[in-house]
Request: fold
Amino acid sequence: MKKFAALLMAAMLLLTAVSAPAEGKTRPEDKKIITTTDVVGAETVFKKYDNKFYEAASDQPGTVVRLDYTTDAYGAEQPGWVNVYLPYGYDENGTERYDIIYFLHGTNETQDSLIGDEKVKNALDNMIEVGVVKPVIMVFPTYYYNYETRAIDMTAFSTKEMRNDILPAVESKYRTYAETADEAGFIASRDHRAFSGYSRGCYACWHQFFNNLDLAKWFMPFSANISGADEMTLAMPVEEQMQMIRDALAAQADYKDSFFIYAACGGKRDDMYNVMQALISAMIADTDDFSFGTDPAVNNLYYSISNEIHQTLMTRFYLYNAFDVVFAE
Reply:
């Protein structure tokens, strides 16, 4: 009888072990922390995550879907499309709403270039799973209106295609904080929207800041300074870049006290290291418009400097750092 009872107890324990839910992942310690104080006149911190952990396949993978739309931002109507990352558990029939990031790729790249890389997709999945960031939607457009010729019109892209076509197409279909997929809805939900970009996409991100400050509170420009409106004047003096910033803030005065820029760049091996250092240093020195730090309640600018090369895939590291601030409040 005792033997039977023991066997019964063992079977029950085994059944319990099998049916019990698995414990969630624990966020690992950062692999490396780089702190500098002599580059931009203020302390900057870059945290390198555990690659083996974050870039392995996640137990809670998100999905990437294509969304088509049309635009007449450049004249005749033409087709366009974006990739949309939806976090694990996204339910098209649900009620939960999500913060959203629009990310702009680098030179000669496409909507697939970042999110189509397994390391990046896994890193985003795992960051959400362990709570580095709340479940978030990411959108991957292109600013090339003719990819064969690599044709770009940053002003039309920012003021027409992004505002009138991309945002309405995405946010009428997916559950962001915009109650309505129109200008009024986007303005009301700007605290839950970010623009980001890497290299040439960073130029595009700055132009979102110049034109669409009413649509987003958060901006994450990675590894580039500011280009001219025609996107050809790339070697602009820093003071001209700063004047573009001041002009944009004056033109969008209702929002000049409600934004946060989280910039990042590689180290000296990054082609944009020197020009971005000069720009961010000038921004930090402009204490009338900027307050450097990581508290969005009192600051509106931060900068993270890694020892990484100039490559769009570095975006996964910069997002990891930016998520300490962006959407964290």
User: Anything to note?
Assistant: The radius of gyration is 22 Å. The chain has a mean pLDDT of 92. The longest helix spans residues 2-19.
